[in-house]
Amino acid sequence: MQEKIYVIGHKSPDLDSVAGAISYAQFKNKLEGVNFYVPVVAGIINKETEYVLEKFGFEKPKILKDLKNKKVILVDHNEVSQSADGREGAEIVEVLDHHKVDFKYSELIVFKVLPWGASASIIAHCYFKNNIKINKNLAGLILSAILVDTVITKSPTCTEKDKEIIEKLAEIAEIKDWKEYGMEIFKVRSSVSDLSPKEIIKSDFKDFVFKVGRFGIGQVETVNLEELNSLEDNLLKSLNDLKKSGDYHSIILFITDIIKEGSRFLVASEDASGFEKAFKVKLKNNKVYIDKIISRKKQVIPKLTKIFDK
Ligand code: MG
Ligand code: MG
Ligand code: MG
After folding, report:
1. How far is the CA of 146 from the centre of ligand 2 (A)?
2. 0.85 cut: is pTM over it?
3. Residue 289 domain boundaries
4. What does the mean pLDDT of the chain come to?
5. How far is the CA of 102 from the centre of ligand 3 (A)?
6. Which pLDDT belongs to residue 67?
7. Rounded Cα distance, 164 and 179, in Å
8. How far is the CA of 17 from the centre of ligand 1 (A)?
9. Residue 164 maps to which CATH number?
């Protein structure tokens, strides 16, 4: 019997990681006429992912905590700090991603990275290019992931290609107004009232290793920034606790208002003035609102890299 090949996204899985694993496993199985590609997730899935899976009739993939001795395809990430544990002992057979590349491996493998707005866009393109049919529910799933990752096309990471694919998928999924549908997902995404500060921080959280040390950067996307005002001090306290317990140089949470298109930053850092320098702002009680900054990948990380990774 052929060994299973697990398709898996990053830790603190977002919709693109989960929908990416499901849709890419299905693509590989169809393309090769096999059934050994299996979607899995690296941790507990978040609310909007659960909402979308249920809406389009998909089961939650199983959690795979340890990649050791497993054959894997990595989707929606390539940096080792973002993979599930045990990656050093895994056999990576392929990578499909849309993030900056920080990757080393001892074997020749298929490595598909495009600077598009979502892994899901690259996967949709694989289906189209190979003439493999995307059914209505799968189109809805893939579309949802693109809408979240591109912040309904508002993010600077969104390309013309993503927009083209969104239109195609919306038609297959029979979603007339994809902007309105995108807002529906973001409303689920921003209802954080039942979460603890730590859960809010960790719901979309990534580690980056810079020369000065480890950074943890979380993002919350909301349709109404004011709703989280009263939580800010508790969030900041949690950031400081996490920083200490996790041996971080800095932990940053930014709360993005997708309507205003700007973000409120909460910063716990060994070097807060470095943060101020990176963004040309002044923190007040370790907090600041920065207009027009909404993308971790395209705006936040490059600015931090310039100061903290040189
Ligand atoms: Mg992701
Ligand atoms: Mg993504
Ligand atoms: Mg995102």
Report:
1. 8
2. yes
3. 197-308
4. 96
5. 18
6. 98
7. 14
8. 5
9. 3.90.1640.10
